[in-house]
Amino acid sequence: MFKVNENYLKLPGSYLFSTIAKKVNAYTAEHPEANIIRLGIGDVTLPLAPAVIAAMHKATDEMGAKETFHGYAPDLGYEFLRSAIAEHDYKKRGVSIALDEIFISDGAKSDSGNIGDIFATDNKIAVCDPVYPVYVDTNVMAGRTGEYEEAAQRFGNVIYMPCTAETDFAPELPKETPDIIYLCFPNNPTGATIPKTELQKWVDYANANRAVIIYDAAYEAYVSEEDVAHTIYECDGAKTCAIELRSFSKNAGFTGNRLGFTVIPKELAFDGVSLNSLWARRHGTKFNGAPYVIQRAGEAVYTSEGQKQTKEQIAYYMNNAKVIREGLTAAGYSVSGGINAPYIWLKTPEHMTSWEFFDYLLETAHIVGTPGSGFGPSGEGYFRLTAFGTYENSVEAMKRIQELCRG
């Protein structure tokens, strides 16, 4: 008789964004006339850059000719894309990354869950609180956590590192030593960053305690402040303790294409076992790569035209962030984020939980955001709005919120 993985039964309810979608769909069915502005899920709204589209057309044509047809992609990904990544994302920042340390995938979300396959189940994880829920959820599925504690809204056997207003929404070094540390900068959902000097402390801490950092840099393209690192490998000693996850979803609008990569330096090893070789084995066996056409599209992001066009898109979203941040401030809300990331983190009114505020905004202003409690226990009392919508909707949303405050 077959058995199910009982670790899945530990997960409470449904996935955060599935819950949001169900609530919005139910409200829309009851109020079809409502003009709903969606500033919740972090999907992009601008079309792919012209340079990317041109590359996809060319690659598609190649797939239609016998002489230029491509079948399965290489395990690590095509060399043309890995070379562009090594040159533009690392070498230009003074970091040397070898081509066989770069693994092309179908996105950072997949990699953030799959990376756990190369670690033992008795490793103890530490996560920022609040943070992207995939980190904890996938470790629950793998059996690396304890049971869900309803009253505390957290899982046992997980080290939660509170990111609060008192710490500028940045984590402090944990008192209990973890084996695996998840860091996400710029952070989702708070938009917070830390200076490179502070990031260096995490690298030193990990090396001193033989811990590994899984560093999610999906939003590095939005960094605007000079003292914030774009890659953890800008820090001394990071190659012996850190794995970096990257995505094309946010920097180039590939949410509908699915493309990302993971970097695992060959220096990262424990008791003589190379994590690079383990991931190469896992990557080759349980392939989660991207097709030739999509990898050519990714390569086009690094051309001069692609860089110019994608930077214009980032500027568009960050202008939306400015509109939202300033609009909320004018309405009397306490806000953070929106400087180095396309997310704005706001304090909910004292008498409302984050889900109550979700319902309030949906019902009174027809605006959808994301309840902070969905990102961890320290997210309660906060709310995330995304700048990935249109400029017009960002302006209209702030107008509605300010009218509510005046009313």
Task: Describe the protein in words.
This protein is α/β, with parallel strands linked by helices. Helix content is 37%, strand content 15%. The strands form five sheets. Strands 2-10-9-8-7-3-6 form a seven-stranded mixed sheet, sandwiched between helices. It has a four-stranded antiparallel sheet with strand order 13-14-17-16. A hairpin with a 2-residue loop joins strand 11 and strand 12 (273-274). Helix 2 (50-63) runs antiparallel to helix 9 (292-301) and helix 3 packs parallel to helix 9. The longest helix is centred in the C-terminal third of the chain and has 27 residues, at 304-330.
Number of helices: 12
* Spatial strand order of the main sheet: 2-10-9-8-7-3-6
Could you give the distance between the termini? 62 Å
The rounded Rg comes to 21 Å
Detail the poorly predicted runs: none
Element order: H for helix, E for strand: HEHHEHEHEEEEHEEHEEEHHHEEHEEEH
Category from helices, strands and their pairing: alpha/beta
Secondary structure: number of strands: 17
Q: Overall pLDDT, averaged? A: 94
Give the oligomeric state of the chains in this entry, treating copies of one chain as homo and distinct chains as hetero: single chain
Instruction: Report strand %.
Output: 5-15%
What share of the residues lie within helices?
25-40%
C-alpha geometry: globular
Sheet with the most strands?
A: 7 strands, mixed
